[in-house]
Amino acid sequence: MAIDRRGFLGLGAAAAALGGFGKAFAAGTEDPSVGKPWKGWKKGQFQVHFIYTGVAESMFWILPDGTTMLLDCGDHAALTRGNLAVPVKPGPERLAGEWIARYVRRVNPSDAAVDYMMLSHYHADHGGTPNWQSRAPTGAQRKWDYYRSGFGLAAEQLTFAKAIDRAWPTFDDPIPKIDGQDRDLEHIRKVYAMLEKRDGLKVEKFRLGAADQVVPLKDPSACAGFKVRNICANGRIAAKNGEIRDLYADVIARCHPKNLNENGMSLGMIVEYGDFKFFTAGDFSDKIRNADKSVTLIEDELASVVEKVNVAKVNHHGHFSMPEKLVKTLAAQAWVGCTWDTLHMVDPVCARLADRSLYPGDRVICPGVFPKSRREEDAGKAWTNDVAKASYDCGHIVLDVPPGGKTYTMTYLTADDESMAVKSVLRFDGAGRVG
What are phi and psi of 245, to 5 degrees? Predict the structure, then answer.
């Protein structure tokens, strides 16, 4: 059943009073594809696969012509978090980079060949690390100098044509990275060097403000209305009119800091596909203490260069991020949280995402997992009605947008094994859920 905008908002208001529609909206278990293997990609669809591992963030993009990108591929010591840890899936017998590569090969139209790799910022949970379960190359791989973690481990099964990096090639933007003090950066530099020699990888710097860097490479004619706009990088933000603001310039001039928050360096983009828009910005989150002792939230500044979208990936895994101004501006129908800890998608963040006073209408909150301990801790809070019920047990999430972008789906797949079985499907039109 299609619902027009007025009817959708009216239904949403009634649901807020009754509490029933929101619960049904977040369930998504009545779709006929539930319990069956995932249908796969077909030409014309834009897909983002939010790959669940329980220890890292990773997204695999398939553009409408089949061009692909692996955005982040991390691994880190999430298991050492004790009671804060979430389940590792499909299991501990493989490290995250290998699970991610195997997932990519199941869904990639080009099997092992990936067109772009992009690291949002130099943190282990996004790119891998030599500091946690990293293994030395063995067998035929011994001739290469790299760490078998995150992107390095995935590269044993995948090839990449181009890498897009926030600070390539000098790694001094906005301040120099200090040799020997950043092993996660050391790791990714080794991966680039290995792939340059092995595969002829080309590496280039992320061009802030550009809308022609991540582009369809196979058949642009199949991508009418598709565009990726680069909106943030290295503590700077870019408006649509080309104006670029440096959020850390005053801090650097005043304090000459040896380090800045790596999260605030994160790369971010808005994707347009016809009527559809998607936001992602890594871990773009930080507080800047100004000369007058006031505090600036860089996400408040980011709100000035973004716009309303249909789907948004939550910054910094929902760990005390996403202030009101940014939530109100993005006004997403679906919020995706890449979770690897019970301190992700925390109560105050989810309460803001669900707050109808910031923007009207129903929406769904889609973490990779919303574990039992959190459900018990947050029981009875209004926002829990907006959480996708399929997240109660860990799952991969697939965003699928057909040509024109007038409709889209959010599908949960099981992460328990590699069967790609569908757990839940949420279907949206331009106003809300279709069915």
Answer: -115, 135
Q: Are 127 and 74 in contact (CB under 8 A)?
A: yes
Query: Which residues 6+ apart lie within 8 Å of 61 measured at CB?
Result: 46, 47, 48, 49, 68, 69, 70, 71
For residues 425 and 409, the answer to whether their CB atoms sit within 8 Å is: yes
Q: Given this model, what pLDDT does residue 131 score?
A: 87
Cβ(162)–Cβ(115) below 8 Å: yes
Q: What are the b/e assignments for 50-76, b being 16+ CB within 10 Å?
A: bbbbbbbbbbbbbbbbbbbbbbbbbbb
Which pLDDT tens digit goes with each residue over 27-77?
A: 777 788 999 999 999 999 999 999 999 999 999 999 999 999 999 999 988
Q: Which residues pair with 62 in a beta bridge?
A: 47, 68
**pLDDT at 102 > cutoff 80:** yes
Q: Which residue blocks in 48-141 are alpha helix, DSSP H?
A: 96-107, 124-127
Report pLDDT digits (tens) over 311-327: 999 999 999 999 999 99
Q: Which of 98, 93, 109 is nearest to 75 (CA)?
A: 98
CA dist 366 → 26, 152, 337, 354 (Å): 9, 28, 6, 12
